[in-house]
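Pipeline run #58 for the internal structure catalog. This entry was flagged by the ingest filter as a single-chain record with no existing model, so it goes straight to prediction. Upstream metadata was stripped on purpose; only the residue string is passed forward. Reviewer on rotation: M.T. Logging verbosity set to normal.
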Amino acid sequence: MRFDVVTLFPELFAPFLETGVTRRAYESKQVDVRLWNPRDFSEGNYRRVDDRPFGGGPGMVMMAEPLARCVDAIRADRQGMAPVVLFSPVGARLDHAQVEAWSAGQGGILLCGRYEGLDQRFIDRYVDVELSLGDFVLSGGEVAAMALLDSVARLQPGVLGDEDSHQFDSFNPALDGLLDCPHYTRPEEWQGAKAPAELLSGHHAQIERWRRERRLEVTARQRPDLIEAARAQGRLTKADEAFLAGLR
């Protein structure tokens, strides 16, 4: 798959693409990331890409024409259409289901906005999807683009050291959409705190039950909406419901 990133700061992506386990996906081109700077498609000596907003107000607005030229050039280079994604506070919140869909697709064009935003006429004509990481504002879309790229890259075959690793992530359908359980490693006792006896028992059924109950417990405490979603989808067993009743 191929992702074309439109950003005024392509230098931000170099360490991201070369560091950590997900670099395997970028090096192998399983996730082919190409960077495009809209300044390269602007006119004049100053290569302006922004101007003051009509109607007054603080900040600057990214101009439609340089962005349009940039996206048109990407489409020509790709030799076909691809969904254009804008990272924006007004977008739908990115979740695991969307990440899985992107990880199985052909990629897209990721727009990293800056300043007060983009000229709405460009958004209306070019943008297919608007995404948000949550109810807060970033200085630009680069961090959001990296979040999507990272979450997609780690789902590609061979990227993680253990092929089953991502199956046990929070929100994964393999965990019925619950949050993940706590984890422990050596030493068995650290600063007076011992690792749970169940995890040291060697009894696989007991270990799995302990993990299931901890997932239920942390999800009920932190994200009760996920419990209700799992219940509505029929993912909770009678044992799960009994455990949750005991928590209440």
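catalog note: The chain has two domains: 2-153, 169-247.
catalog note: The CA atoms of residues 221 and 247 lie 10 Å apart.
status: ready for reviewer M.T.
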